[in-house]
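FAQ
Q: What does a multi-component entry look like?
A: The components come first, one per line:
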Amino acid sequence: MTRRARKERLKRKDAKVEQSAFRQLKNPYKPFEILSDDQLGIIHESSMEILENVGIDVQDRNARTILKDAGFDVAEGSDRVRMDRDGVMVLVDKAPSSFTVHGRNPMRSVKGGDGYVMFSAVAGPPFGADLDSGRRAGVFEDTVKFLKLTQSLNILHLQGGASIEPTDLPPETRHLDLSLACARYLDKPWKPNFIGRERSLDAIEFAKILHGTDEAGLAKNPVYYCNTNTNTPLILDREIAQGVIELAGAGQVICITPFTLAGAMTPASLAGALAMQNAEALAGCAFVQAIRPGCPFVYGSFTMAVDMKSGSPTFGTPEFAKGAAATGQLARLYGLPWRSSNACTSCAPDAQAAYETQMSLWSAITAHVSVIYQGAGWLEGGLVGSFEKLILDAEMLQMFAAWMEPFEVSPEEIGLATIAEIGPGGHFLGTAHTMERYENAFYRPLVSDWNNFENWRDAGARDAAQRANGMWKRLLDEYEQPALDPAVDEELKAFVAKRKEACGVAAA
Amino acid sequence: MTRRARKERLKRKDAKVEQSAFRQLKNPYKPFEILSDDQLGIIHESSMEILENVGIDVQDRNARTILKDAGFDVAEGSDRVRMDRDGVMVLVDKAPSSFTVHGRNPMRSVKGGDGYVMFSAVAGPPFGADLDSGRRAGVFEDTVKFLKLTQSLNILHLQGGASIEPTDLPPETRHLDLSLACARYLDKPWKPNFIGRERSLDAIEFAKILHGTDEAGLAKNPVYYCNTNTNTPLILDREIAQGVIELAGAGQVICITPFTLAGAMTPASLAGALAMQNAEALAGCAFVQAIRPGCPFVYGSFTMAVDMKSGSPTFGTPEFAKGAAATGQLARLYGLPWRSSNACTSCAPDAQAAYETQMSLWSAITAHVSVIYQGAGWLEGGLVGSFEKLILDAEMLQMFAAWMEPFEVSPEEIGLATIAEIGPGGHFLGTAHTMERYENAFYRPLVSDWNNFENWRDAGARDAAQRANGMWKRLLDEYEQPALDPAVDEELKAFVAKRKEACGVAAA
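Then the predicted structure of the entire assembly, as tokens:
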């Protein structure tokens, strides 16, 4: 499909469900700061002491070799790696302050960092849910629906690979089915499964075919946003390390996110959780730069507090918000792009889900987040990919995109002459100044209902979740699969079949 | 009741519905800024040109005399007053940067401005609503329930007088019934009805009796937060001006809020609406300072955008949020405390209501708002006082109070020694550092449900609004009327009866 044909198709789509256009977002405002310079310094200093004196357990031998070769102190006969601050900082300095991740459609390539921000659909929930059928174990059919919706919603830039985990597919080859589905239903970039060496090599081979390129091309124009985590406190897991070695080796965008659950995996204080987060994220950054200097790295943050009653994690709380704001300052201190989440604790797509989501989003966006991972569809602490929440989140993200449109202030925009002309007691609806701005002056909603009570009641008195239910179905009806060169599709299919055989499972 | 007895009663209350303690709030962070200095300058300059060249229609003769005596250009035989910038600025400079409004219980007195912030219940909706009975015309019974809930919810500092307008009471004497109800059911400060001279004088006499003081005492310790508005564009209404003359004359806290509906009452641009808002708010401030120099004045902001489809106002939109942030900068430019709203457009206490509310709150609070008027219970563009929304808002406000708790960062708080002791792969739940912080480390919710799916489902799978429904009933059950000296109560009753007679209506 030509670029022009694509543009026209996008326009046609816009004529159906009204939504804001796909575009690169940038935060034009000064970042909000929650910590003083002194406080920032104490957190930095503490994380350096953790890395130097406590160290981190790196459970993969090759990873330890890489770190040893980079000059760090690897204990004989143990996983423990102690990292001196100078060594860490020299490596961290090699990471770029922004990155671009490329879609197979070049119009879908997006930038993160230096104020640029991208939004991703939720990734990884083992359950799916909608208002019609309730909550169920993740199945491939739901995974595909979420892929189609991610493609259709202009406000989303990235997919997490599986917004609902397809637990009905064999785990050994699931990553291959997912890659093929992402390649077909999306022309936006996504996060591959890169747990362990084999899956990671599959992801790289797959990308070469899809993008018609080689190692050098992939490294020049990264196509994967590779999100993973440490096992807090202070463990880098074997299979995760292996995946990072391969994908960072291939020059893809790597995000390492410490799982800092304050009160359980870290001390029961926000400052303690942040010191731990900072130690692990910087260790991850140093590791990635030791693998491939200059590799795009995203400082991951997911600091949350434990509910002291139940021991389970809570999201979208005041602590979650404060942690995100502080992370923005830490990431800027090191000149790194960073990631936060649109997370909530609520079990329903209700008012609680919305206010928790907003606590997550405001704190991250005002602090110049680069990637909102888990950006849309997350419910129930991340256990559920919710179809209605996806739509509600898309509305909220659209609102932030509008909020980030630069504030226009000029005498023309103010309309002083019109004010003088109308004078006290007049009305501005019919003025030329208004007529010129009529259509695009203000935000137009996706699923918010701005009707008055009588119209809202007469239309069925549906709440926002009920309207979202209608909206995702409409989007699925309107979904148009982005064209893929049949030869490429064939080659991808053959690759998947071959790899499935090698994994001992018959090709589908 | 003694102070101690009151304290103990409050403690007992806390043992019932668990909520955060009543306290003065202060924002410890640097304010978020959305405008550049240049942009701020253009808005200021434009508003000065509006006041100088267009002028404002002041529909009350006494008010015009006051402005004329202050040196402004009052047109012969017309309402039009043109205000030169120097004259305006000399008066604006007389207004204090913060104020205190006093409750009849001195523990309920609160400060606004210079980073201090107070939260008010919704004021003025003609309708009430709850999940049981739906939406209905406001009745005194609902008004009283809201007063009791305002008293019970520790996060609320102010009442707007009638969160649901008692349309079943005669309008001529409704203000007297309301004053008596506020005096009895609240020990927190409230907003009086001060539309027109008579009602304003009634409010002042009533306060003297309730607080056992005289004119000088009232002016020294203001007891009323007097919120009113201009009739945008550029009209100061007669009865409003009369009320301001009396209440500012009595040294009470005055807030004048331009009704700047962008696209209808102002040009269809945020910058145009803000220039208009700034002109009217500063004219109001100058007017108040001309009445009584040094009188506490709050810069009111309510800039919203019209829905270009229906012509009705929209709240909690990206424009609403940007307007609030910009207002914070304008108010700081003049050294004035300022007011914003917790407003939403949604007709239901659903996800839309929550995300619109959050857009309103985050933008105001990060920009150092002094008063969140319409802070809890607002639904449907302000037409409805909602019992469930009141509880949801109280939760959101509590979360902001926790967010504003200063960020604690110190080596002890971080717990470096504990991190070293636990090391990689350990768990922090049982450590002494956690045990010490266990109970107060993290926010505890009011109505948010943090249960896992199974527990939530087994408890009835109630959404946030349904849980809020149970919560307000429980709070009403637990409500304890604050003691009022019977002699004062008698005197207030007699005053109300006398004034009702004078208004030609038999005393109740």
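Q: Is there any commentary attached?
A: Sometimes. For this entry: Chain A touches chain B through 125 residues (CB under 8 Å).
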